[in-house]
Amino acid sequence: MLSLPRTAAAVTVYALVALIAGAAAAGGGEQPLSRIAIHRATVAPQPGAFVDASPALLGREGEDREWVTVTYSNPRPSKDDWIGVFSPANFNDSICPPENEWVEPPLLCTAPIKFQFANYTNRDYGNTGKGSLRLQLINQREGFSFALFSGGLSNPKLIAHSKSVTFINPKTPVYPRLAQGKSWNEITVTWTSGYGTNEATPFVRWGIEGQIQTLSPAGTLTFSRDTMCGPPARTVGWRDPGFIHTSFLKDLWPNLLYTYQVGHRIFNGSIVWGHQYSFKAPPYPGEDSLQRVVILGDMGKAEVDGSNEFNDFEPGSLNTTNQLIKDLKNIDVVFHIGDITYANGYLSQWDQFTAQVEPIASTVPYMVGSGNHERDWPGSGSFYGNLDSGGECGVPAQNMFYVPAENREQFWYSTDYGMFRFCVANTELDWRPGTEQYRFIEHCLSSVDRQKQPWLIFLAHRVLGYSSATFYADEGTTEEPMGRESLQPLWQKYKVDIAMYGHVHGYERTCPVYENACVAKGSDLYAGAFTATTHVVVGGGGASLADYTAARARWSHVRDRDFGFVKLTAFNHTRLLLEYKKSRDGSVHDHFTISRDYRDVLACGVDNCPSTTLAS
């Protein structure tokens, strides 16, 4: 590798990346990789310095993730030395696209996929210059190399790097994600591989457990650097996403157990298989049976090996994931309502996230919503013109996860699950009266048959209802601008049972509230006719926690500054339980029950009485 000068273009790009990181940090969503000034990297080889990694070949028994031991030595050690994991393994300037024909590319133009300080597990590293790390790698379609840097993260100097480490088949299909289809008896399977349609045909082998299996084709999508809206997604954060495949499993029999296995038929006639999984088909809409739904927001990803961690960025993410895995037999579907990965323009993190949730998403539908860290970017059509997506402007989220939207770019959709109707809004696009999304929201709320599906749930990322977070209070409000003013007439008219949001990293539950007033007192039991919507903030999935105001509004019934998630259990058409569970141990911290029969749903209340006539 040759040391190249920092160019004006490189400095400009790094300055913008740093600006984005600073803005994200102010909102509690900094991506740790953004702290690395990779455009400033230079070569500073040290005689005797080395990096070794073993084993060099991974996945010998079909594993999609493996632990690697990295050993290293630096004759002139410093507490700022760090190890970067790069993928593709060839991370020098040969893969840097030139800014233009007059400007040389930087030495390094791609951020590592993870990093850790050299003294992380080696307290004596500063004296000996010798150390080792155990790092977990997942199959991400390319090889890996490990590099030792001095100079800290802000002025990295490349001292040594290892030989390549790779999985036996880097292209193998991995990390399937289930989702509800556009009809109640359809499940979609989405997965990632390194096989394009010019090399192999993707498909799913599936069927009722123990019976004859069938084959269903899959469509293939990908996206390019040019579809990113800005840095770092378009520059140092870019990494080829591979190919994303989706198959539609139709005409499912309600409640039966199905097995499935994704595969690729190579054009030489051989087949490459993924692992085998199973799922339970959804119930018929309106079916009276036990139905359990988990809802969470702002989880992000975290590393089991401790790498990439900064300032408690996502300490709760693994706890939340592990609690869901432990209780998976008692979960039917999961809704992750925005701020999914906090990749913030570092595309490698999307693979990392799909690997983290794979035990969940491969078994039950994992439904996602759009948040500011997926969508927002100036001049991209987002309602908010901030830098929170790191230049992604929604593209990875729209491709990596399927949602049953008429237009996946819009990312709003409705879905039915047994006795539930879920209306999922996209707060990163305009929702106000007169907009296309407002018309969608009203249609979703008004078109449900409450005799068959009594439980009507509204989901969105930003708080369109009520929150006592300090960052809202600092703006003199308790919600997103024009949030509930636009939508509370609809919630009240159509008797929305519960509205849930993320964005504020913690938990808060209101009384049944309308126009800032409690229509009923906060309670653990609401029986009889509908009074008003209960608003619940459930943004404590994993990202660094938010603060609440010292003063407390009358509508704020319960709040908790901790990591957790909500579980809804519909026992039948007349009884619904909400539980807020702690991520650390799964304990129930708050709960309430709604007990209501059909005549209670029809009953007249505040601002939701239908017109009547005296005519006989």
Question: Could you characterize the architecture of this molecule?
Answer:
By secondary structure, the chain is α+β, with helices and mostly antiparallel strands. The chain is globular and about 95 Å long. Strands 21, 22, 23, 24, 25, 26, 28 and 29 form an 8-stranded mixed β-sheet that branches. A hairpin with a 4-residue loop joins strand 16 and strand 17 (271-280). It has 2 domains: 50-167, Immunoglobulin-like, CATH 2.60.40; 286-602, Metallo-dependent phosphatases (Purple Acid Phosphatase, chain A, domain 2), CATH 3.60.21. It is built from 11 helices and 32 strands. Helices cover 14% and strands 31% of the residues.
Write the layout of secondary structure elements.
Layout: H1 8-26, E1 42-43, E2 50-54, E3 57-58, E4 65-73, E5 82-86, E6 114-117, H2 125-128, E7 130-138, E8 145-150, E9 157-161, E10 166-167, E11 174-180, E12 187-193, E13 200-208, E14 214-221, E15 243-249, E16 257-266, E17 271-280, E18 291-296, H3 317-326, E19 333-337, H4 348-356, H5 358-361, E20 366-369, H6 372-375, H7 395-400, E21 413-417, E22 420-424, H8 436-446, E23 455-460, H9 470-473, H10 483-493, E24 498-501, E25 507-514, E26 517-518, E27 525-527, E28 534-538, E29 556-560, E30 564-570, E31 575-582, E32 588-595, H11 598-602
Parallel strand pairs: 1-9, 3-10, 18-19, 19-20, 22-23, 23-24, 24-28, 27-32
Antiparallel strand pairs: 2-4, 4-7, 5-6, 5-8, 8-9, 11-12, 12-15, 13-14, 13-16, 14-15, 16-17, 18-30, 21-22, 25-26, 25-28, 25-29, 30-31, 31-32
